[in-house]
Structure formats: C-alpha cells, structure tokens
Design a protein that fits this description.
Elements: H1 7-16, H2 19-32, H3 37-46
C-alpha cells in the first residue's frame, strides 16, 4: 500500500534521525530527486567558489 507523507512529516523524520542515517540520505538525495549526475557534479565543483561567505563578519546572514 502506498502512503502519502506530508513534507512536514518527512522533515520531522529526518530531524529525528541519527546523524549517520542523515548522511546516508544525503548521499542518496540527488538520485531520489532525479538530479542528473553531471548536474550534481557541477554543483559540487562550484561549492569552493562560495567559501568566502563562510566568515565571522557574515554570520548574521546565515539564518536568512
């Protein structure tokens, strides 16, 4: 039987999960969201270019 979960229930379940389970989901997420491997790789490749935002002066913007 197929059950429908609300986004809120999914979020709650992820938050209650152990860190190792969250990491496992994170590795599977691109596949589950049908993100092509090439696109995912490009996203990962671009991440270091945004490192300049990780600094104490910009911490106020982290919660936006």
């Amino acid at each position: 039987m197929l059950t429908s979960l609300s986004l809120k229930k999914i979020e709650e379940s992820i938050q209650k999960s152990k860190p190792e389970e969250q990491q496992k989901l994170l590795r599977k997420l691109p596949y589950l969201l049908n993100i092509p491997l090439e696109d995912y790789n490009l996203l990962k490749l671009s991440e270091p270019s945004f490192d300049f935002w990780n600094n104490p002066d910009d911490v106020i913007y982290d919660s936006l």
